[in-house]
Design a protein that fits this description.
Order of helices and strands of chain A: HHHEEHHHHHHHHHHHH
Distance between the termini of chain B: 33 Å
CATH architecture of the largest domain in chain B: Orthogonal Bundle
Strand order of the largest sheet of chain A: 1-2
Radius of gyration of chain B: 25 Å
Shape of chain A: flat
CATH architecture of the largest domain in chain A: Orthogonal Bundle
Shape of chain B: globular
CATH topology of the largest domain in chain A: MetI-like fold
Structural class of chain B: mainly alpha
Number of domains of chain B: 2
Largest sheet of chain A: 2 strands, antiparallel
Number of helices of chain B: 15
Helix content of chain B: over 70%
Order of helices and strands of chain B: HHHHHHHHHHHHHHH
CATH class of the largest domain in chain A: Mainly Alpha
Number of helices of chain A: 15
Strand content of chain A: under 5%
CATH superfamily of the largest domain in chain A: MetI-like
Number of strands of chain B: 0
Radius of gyration of chain A: 26 Å
Oligomer: heterodimer
Structural class of chain A: mainly alpha
CATH topology of the largest domain in chain B: MetI-like fold
CATH class of the largest domain in chain B: Mainly Alpha
Helix content of chain A: 55-70%
Chain lengths: 323, 292
Amino acid sequence: MSKKDAPAKEVAKTSDQPKKRLFNVEKRFGYTMHEIWTHKMSYGLVAPFFILFITFSLLPLLASLYLSFCYWNILQSPVFTGWQNYRYLFVDDSLFLKAFSNTLYYAIIVGPTAYIASYFFAWFINQVPKKIRPLYTLAFYAPSLTSSIAMAVVWGVMFSNDSTGYLNSLLLKLNIISDPVQWTQDVHWIMPVGIIVALWSSLGTGFLSFVAGFTNVDKELYDAAAVDGVTSRFQRLLYVDIPQTMPQLLFAAVLQITGSLSVGGTLAGHPTPEDAGLTVMLHLSDYSGTRFEVGYASAIAVVLSLLIFGLGRAAFKILSDKG
Amino acid sequence: MLRVDQVDVDYLKRAKKRKDYAGRVIIVLLALAGMVSMLPLVYLVSTAFKPPEELFLYPPRFFVSNPTLDNFKMLSQVTANSLVPFTRYLFNTVLITVAYLFFLVWVNTMACYPLSKHTFPGKKFLFNMVTYSLMFIASAAGIPLYLIITGLHLDNTYLVFVIPGLANSTALFLMKQFMDQVPNEIFEAGKIDGASEWQLYTKIALPLLKNAQATIIILCFGGIWNESGTSTTYIYKEQLRSLGFFMSTIGGGIARQGVAGVTALIMTFPSIIIFVIQQSRVMDTMAHSGIK
């Protein structure tokens, strides 16, 4: 990738010279090689990363983009079918719409809630004395370090469908319900339960980024703001902390958008009654892993990726001048 | 100038005199919230040490009253019947975790230095690619990735756990942002003293990146330690599969609740311990994590 990119730069560099030179292939090639040789150290150091990145991230992504216009069942070679997958996706696949609305429901609640909670818990942590901050940080961050196996154990018992489950036995005792609620079988509860579990472990990398970002805010700015009449904590948050943590806000927003839209299975597992817990990622894996309709699965992946990229761009526009 | 200083001092004096009630309320409320956040983890520990009669109590009880090590013994009984001894899975996971983290640090450290401190054609393009790939969903392109991995004959080897995940854009992003805040003057001073490009990297950049390296180890440890998907997809030889895979096969079933608790404890606690030990280093790195 780095080698391909070099000629473009070379054009820019020689643009003020006579135009004829641009067409001198021999010289141009020589110049490119020379340019690469001068920066051999830089290219050498980034090469391992980008070779691996292209092989295992970019190439599969580009292949998916192409395959989304094909019919392919892995056994035979792909057949180009144009927009057919996309037409089926938006017009005929009612299950996709179900998966999409479930995913949006999840993402609209978990995404902003987790993002705002991360910011405010981090901000509150920044208000406590420095010595006890690490303890508080650990208490809030530990849930996201929990393995998925552990999550299933803890929440499985909490939301157990019979009367021995913690929540059911508590609600029965308080006479709020008369029969145990089928938390992971009832179509009305599958997504809410999934959302609660997700929220518990939602203070992740973005949260750490905020905690660290706040400690980085120059303390002199508080004094300067005090001179301008900013005295209360909340005024300081508004006029100093938020503007100073913009880069972290953008980083966390990007991670949050990607994380909440690419949600897979919930606590209820897969498949769920009436597909109440079906998400776009689960729908995708049904087609790629179970039915081997790779072309169609790729179209789903492309649609989801475009949604994430679009929202990511919007986050860049709002939170950074880079736009 | 004098006036400004005067106001400053007055403000600070007043602030010191005024008792910070809001601050105390925050400490208490945050402690309560933190306890709620930790509850499921406390439950996990408690379950792992519960004797059978307490596991099936009705109504269920949160804390253990007579802790035992029965569940740990039961785990070793369960594993006695498995195809491959438990220790083999443990060995596999320790091996792939160490190898993965070692090369992850190596690859990302190498890449972050020129992206931050050198100027070369294509640098901006490469870094933008990394920033945008924060929005990639890796699992969305599963089948093409599968074909690439099997095409390179990485399946059924330990390498499949290590190599495909090495180019981690979050890790590179964090390391590059960390490198950015190291002043360029250090490297210029090194150049004046006659250091070669290679020496600038090994003698100056590498020691400065220690905290960032610790951070990406923590962020990536959980993923590789709990690894089970790769074992299912790419490994057919039981003796090469990981602990996470094995643990995911024995969990489940109400009768094995205690064993599942022990399993969960084994899978979760190494991550937490590593975080506790390295927390200050992580904070140092994350402070520069923003997208500028």
